Amino acid sequence: MNLSLFRSMPLISNAFRNAPLRIKLVAVYSCLFTVVLLLSTGTLYFLTKKNIERNIESELHNSTTAILNMVQTAANLSIRSHLQAIAGKNKEIVTGLYEKALAGKISESEAKNQATQILLSQRIGDTGYIYCLSSEGVLQVHPKPSLIGKNISSYPFIQQQLKKKDDYIEYEWQNPGESVKRSKALYMTYFKPWDWIISASSYREEFKDLISAEDFSESIMNLRFGETGYSYVIDSKGNLIVHPAQPNTNIYDSRDTEGRYFIRQMIQEKNGRIIYPWKNPNETAPREKLVIFNYLPEYDMIVASSSYLEEFYRPLTIIRYIIVASAVLAILLLLPFTMWLADLIAKPLKEVADRFLSAGKGDFSVRLKILSGDEIGRMATGFNGFMDHLEHYRDELEDLNKNLETRVWERTAELKKTLDHVKTLKGLIPICSGCKKIRDDSGYWQQIEAYISEHSDADFSHGICPDCIKRLYPDLYDENTQ
Question: Residue 148 sits in a domain of what CATH number?
Answer without folding.
Answer: 3.30.450.20
